[in-house]
Design goal:
The structure holds two protein chains of two kinds.
Chain A lengths: L4 H56 L3 H13 L4 E8 L4 E4 L5 E2 H4 L11 E6 L4 E11 L2 E11 H52 L15 H5 L32 H8 L3 H6 L3 H43 L3 E6 L4 E4 L1 H7 L3 H4 L4 H4 L2 H17 L3 E9 L2 E13 L5 E10 L1 H47 L5 H27 L7 E3 L1 H18 L2 E7 L6 E3 L1 H18 L4 E10 L4 E8 L6 H4 L19 H11 L3 E5 L4 H4 L9 E7 L1 H16 L2
Parallel strand pairs in A: 13-15
Antiparallel strand pairs in A: 1-2, 1-6, 4-5, 5-6, 7-8, 7-11, 9-10, 10-11, 12-14, 15-16, 16-18, 17-18
Chain B lengths: L1 H18 L6 E2 L5 E2 L9 E6 L5 H19 L2 E5 L4 H10 L4 E4 L1 H11 L2 E7 L6 E2 L1 E6 L15 E4 L5 H13 L9 E4 L6 H10 L5 E5 L2 H5 L8 E6 L3 E2 L2 E4 L5 H12 L6 H9 L4 E4 L6 H9 L10
Parallel strand pairs in B: 3-4, 3-5, 9-10, 9-11
Antiparallel strand pairs in B: 5-14, 6-14, 6-15, 7-13, 8-11, 8-12
């Protein structure tokens, strides 16, 4: 069983009192008993000695009557005197106070030597206990006999018993009185401690507003009669002023508590209000809780700020596409961002606490470890490009590893930031290809320009020869073949020139539907012969665009021809024109039901001279020309192969290629012309 | 908590153990009784010293002498202690005292009344075979300077039968013309025993104006009071001293043995001196009845009839 503090005090107090009482009872009773026994003994000795002295005369006078009288008077002088008798010099009883003969056992029960003054012996008669006193009757050194006296022990025992009871009762009363006052005094100690305990428990539960210190009987502002309501001690009825900082008393000294207390010791407020240690403890506890509360508040605010900043930092880190990680000196991951988790295809908690050897293949982990060790040892950052093979092909990353230092400059970790630069690298490569193609284009344009004149002469002379030769002859047919091939060459040269050299555009508002209809009217009949039908999907109303009608028609015919070429055998070419109000663009679509474009080639179809057609069927410049025309009109061209399902659902086919051209409507185009007219008008 | 309880219990047990200690007692059976029978000895020669002092003093003075006599004579001599002078004389007459050591007045009485016969007498401390009485008062009592100043005073004497303590002084007063009636009061020491000392103490305590004692008493009491506070202002004439007398009818052979043994005591012998000093005797000489005639004359002078009890 665990006792409370109060119970322990009560138990201890009562135990001590009881113990003290027992010791007192024991000690006092022993002392008193011994004193009573000693007094009784001395009394017996005194009576015996006196009797012995008084017996000398009658013994010498052999006056039995006087002897008997003396003995009887002695026995009658005390209630507790049982007997008295005299033994002569031969130790024979001479006179006694017994009735009915002398008890022979008594004669030798207590023998005293001549040289002894007396001898006392406790006798047990079976009914009672008697102290027997033997005193020799002497004259000088001559012994006349022995006086014997018997004193009942019962009287002493009764006195001792009464004494014990009196002591016991007195001790009990004293214990009760002491216990009562002790309880009252203990309560003054235990009550504040209980309040202190409750306050401490409240504090543990988070309530730091508990008031532990008792109300002060006198307040400092009343004693000093200062009336300074702005003083922090003014109105505080629970805390004495020397526990409060910033008090405004003239005698108060600001500074450390010890220094302040030195001045407070001489203050009349301190002399009148200073309480005991428990009150001081309670006030100290209140001060402590106030301080803790204040610190907790600061801590909470700091924690909140820290949390916000941490969240902000995490958001930033998670938002960045770079793969960011932090490792400690033991190469253990301490923090990673979302991108890192995604590329590792693991959760954050599965990465934190792991090393590279847990996350990567052994060879790569080993490489990382060597790099990291070098950084940690030298403190030099590492910047490199690296690649790895993923499910979507080879990926390139740009890696920056920098050492993290503590306040003392010691390297305590490693921050790694990696960026996926695959796309960047692809664009970079494309740019290089474009630059290369631009150079080739310029070369081709020069060559074409030089070839165009002699080719025109060749074609002119061939046509002159054909007019002069009779049709149907071999020479006529050969000349026709030459004319045909010369025309093909002229077209190639014309395309090359168109691709490589921007021709003057005549930009006017136009309805793309008209341009498309004109193109389709030309090719539809020929296509139908090859069982390729054309489906028109034009919006009933379409805003105007600003553009060169011929170039738009050229762009469309390139796409339609490409579609036709892509269809082997029967097929459908769907041509659409619509308006996207969200982007304010006119959208032209050309879809076919052909074989489609392989994924690995789709990125290159707008490259010049890239073609999937047979050598004699295409130059590889059609889509490049179309791309250039659309760009010239401020639009965009996209290709999807196979096209999205929804776009082909009506045709019931799910293969082929879909080209989509976005052209800004007239207002946009006008605006663009105003802001970016240079691009449009440039040659 | 457990330690505290253990200590508490230990102390409690210790206290209880302490309380339960009992003193050992010797068992006696008071029911075993028998009557007390005093067997009287038959061949005892009784020796009595006239009780002018307490029995204890008498014993201390004479028990060595009695032992000496017993040893020298081979007789079963025992000292007995009569309470008063009259008792002493009566017991001589009754034959209960065989050898009486008494003053000369008592002797002349027992000789006259019961036929006792003196056979030896002692020398006083000064070697004188006679002794005398003293009349004393407090040293600071200025009312008594001369014998005549005793008239109208209160007188305490030892005993009406005391020679050195009353009768010598009474004869001395009468011979000087001072009668018993001239005193306001003549008192005697209360008995029994110690009468000479009581007279001195009464004067010392201012209970009486003058007192009469045997010469030598002051030395006896010197260890109890300052005897410088007592003044001896008169001495009586010399009279024969204390005497040994045999009762009438005592076997002469026995008397002779005792007389012979007494006369053999020599103060110069250390063993005898111890005996004699205890008895305040310096020597013993032979004596006969005629030696006490002056005492008989004094008795006649004071009007004391030897056959009567003194008044």
């Amino acid at each position: 069983m665990k006792f409370g503090f109060r119970s322990k005090i009560y138990l201890g107090m009562f135990s001590l009192l009881l113990l003290l009482g027992l010791v007192i009872i024991f000690t006092v009773s022993r002392i008193m008993t011994n004193a009573l026994l000693e007094e009784n003994r001395n009394r017996g000795i005194s009576i015996g000695t006196n009797l012995a002295a008084r017996l000398i005369e009658p013994v010498l006078a052999i006056d039995f009557f006087r002897m008997k009288t003396l003995l009887d008077e002695t026995v009658r002088s005390g209630d507790d005197i049982s007997y008295a008798f005299f033994l002569d010099d031969k130790n024979e009883p001479l006179v006694h106070t017994f009735k009915g003969g002398f008890p022979v056992d008594l004669k030798r029960a207590n023998e005293v030597e001549d040289q002894e003054k007396y001898r006392v012996r406790l006798l047990d008669t079976g009914k009672e206990r008697i102290y027997d006193y033997a005193v020799p009757v002497l004259i000088g050194n001559d012994r006349l006999g022995t006086t014997r006296l018997g004193l009942q022990r019962t009287r002493v025992q009764e006195a001792v018993r009464r004494l014990m009871w009196s002591t016991f009762l007195l001790t009990g009363v004293v214990i009760l009185i002491a216990g009562f006052f002790g309880t009252v005094l203990a309560r003054t100690v235990t009550r504040p401690i209980k309040v202190l305990h409750q306050s401490a428990e409240e504090a543990l539960r988070g309530n730091l507003d508990a008031k532990t210190a008792p109300l002060l009987k006198r307040n400092c502002w009343e004693i000093m009669q200062c009336g300074k309501s702005e003083c922090p001690a003014f109105g505080d009825v629970r805390h004495r002023c020397w526990y409060l900082a910033g008090t405004l008393c003239p005698s108060c000294v600001e500074g450390e508590y010890a220094k302040r207390m030195e001045s407070c010791l001489h203050c009349s407020v301190y002399r009148k209000c200073s309480g005991d240690e428990i009150q001081s403890l309670a006030e100290s506890f209140d001060s402590m809780t106030l301080s803790v509360k204040s610190h907790l508040l600061e801590l909470k605010n700091t924690e909140k700020i820290l949390k916000e900043q941490r969240q902000l930092l995490k958001t930033i880190l998670d938002a960045t596409p770079d793969f960011v990680s932090l490792q400690d000196c033991e190469y253990v991951y301490q923090a990673v961002n979302k991108a890192f988790c995604e590329i590792m295809k693991r959760k954050e908690e599965d990465i934190i606490g792991k090393t590279d050897f847990d996350l990567f293949l052994a060879n790569r982990a080993k490489i990382h470890r060597l790099e990291d060790r070098k950084i940690l040892e030298t403190g030099e950052p590492l910047i490199k490009r690296d690649s790895f093979k993923g499910p979507q092909g080879r990926r390139w990353i740009h890696v920056v590893k920098i050492p993290v230092r503590d306040a003392g400059g010691k390297v305590v970790g490693l921050l790694c930031s990696s960026r996926d630069i695959t796309e960047f690298k692809r664009v970079q490569e494309k740019l290089a290809q474009s630059q290369k193609m631009e150079s080739v284009g310029q070369l081709v344009a020069g060559v074409a320009h030089e070839i165009n004149t002699p080719l025109g002469i060749i074609l002119g002379y061939v046509q002159l020869l054909i007019e002069e030769i009779e049709p149907g002859t071999q020479n006529y047919q050969d000349l026709q073949t030459v004319e045909k091939q010369a025309k093909i060459c002229r077209k190639i040269v014309s395309d090359l020139l168109r691709f490589s050299r921007h021709t003057e555009s005549t930009m006017k508002p136009l309805d793309v539907r008209e341009s498309i209809k004109e193109v389709l009217a030309v090719v539809e009949h020929a296509y139908r012969l090859d069982r390729v039908s054309i489906v028109r999907r034009f919006a009933p109303e379409l805003p105007m665009i600003v553009g060169d009608k011929d170039k738009i028609k050229q762009a469309v015919i390139n796409l339609v021809n490409n579609a036709f070429d892509a269809i082997s055998g029967e097929g459908v070419i769907t041509v659409g024109a619509g308006y996207d109000p969200t982007s304010a663009e006119v959208v032209i679509t050309v879809a076919d039901t052909g074989a489609g474009i392989p994924p690995e080639k789709i990125d290159r179809i707008f490259d010049p001279f890239f073609t999937t057609k047979p050598v004699d069927k295409g130059t590889g410049l059609g889509l490049s020309v179309t791309f250039g025309i659309i760009q010239e009109h401020g639009g965009e061209i996209e290709v999807e192969s196979p096209p999205p399902r929804e776009s082909l659902a009506a045709e019931g086919v799910f293969s082929g290629t879909l080209f989509t051209i976005h052209l800004p409507v007239a207002d946009q185009a006008g605006k663009m012309e105003t802001e970016d007219g240079k691009n449009i008008s440039s040659g | 908590m457990k330690g505290f309880a253990a200590v508490f219990i230990s102390i409690g047990l210790l206290l209880l153990t302490g309380c339960s200690q009992e003193e050992p007692a010797y068992k006696v059976d008071l029911d075993k009784r028998k009557p007390v029978i005093k067997n009287e000895e038959t061949d005892v020669i009784t020796y009595a010293y006239l009780p002018q002092y307490s029995h204890k003093e008498s014993y201390q003075r004479h028990h060595l002498l009695v032992e000496y006599l017993r040893r020298e004579t081979g007789l079963n001599i025992k000292q007995i202690f009569p309470d008063t002078f009259d008792k002493h004389m009566e017991m001589v007459g009754q034959g209960k005292i065989d050898i009486s050591f008494s003053n000369p007045f008592v002797y002349v009485k027992i000789a006259h009344r019961y036929g006792a016969m003196a056979f030896a007498r002692i020398l006083e401390a000064n070697g004188n075979p006679h002794f005398r009485g003293q009349i004393i008062c407090r040293a600071d009592n200025r009312d008594i300077e001369a014998l005549s100043d005793c008239r109208g005073k209160r007188w305490i004497a030892v005993d009406p039968s005391s020679a050195g303590g009353y009768l010598f002084q009474l004869g001395y007063f009468i011979s000087r013309g001072i009668q018993k009636e001239d005193f306001i009061e003549i008192a005697f020491s209360p008995g029994p025993g110690g009468k000479q000392e009581k007279v001195v103490l009464s004067i010392w305590a201012k209970k009486y104006d003058l007192g009469s004692i045997r010469e030598g008493t002051l030395n006896v009491i010197a260890d109890r009071i300052d005897i410088g506070e007592i003044r001896v202002f008169a001495h009586t004439p010399w009279y024969p001293g204390w005497t040994y007398a045999a009762r009438k009818g005592l076997v002469p052979e026995t008397v002779s043995k005792v007389r012979q043994a007494l006369l053999q005591l020599n103060y110069s012998q250390s063993d005898h001196r111890r005996i004699m000093e205890a008895a305040d005797i310096t020597g013993i000489i032979s004596s006969k009845d005629q030696d006490f005639n002056p005492v008989r004359e004094l008795a006649a002078q004071i009007g004391m009839r030897l056959e009567d009890r003194p008044k």
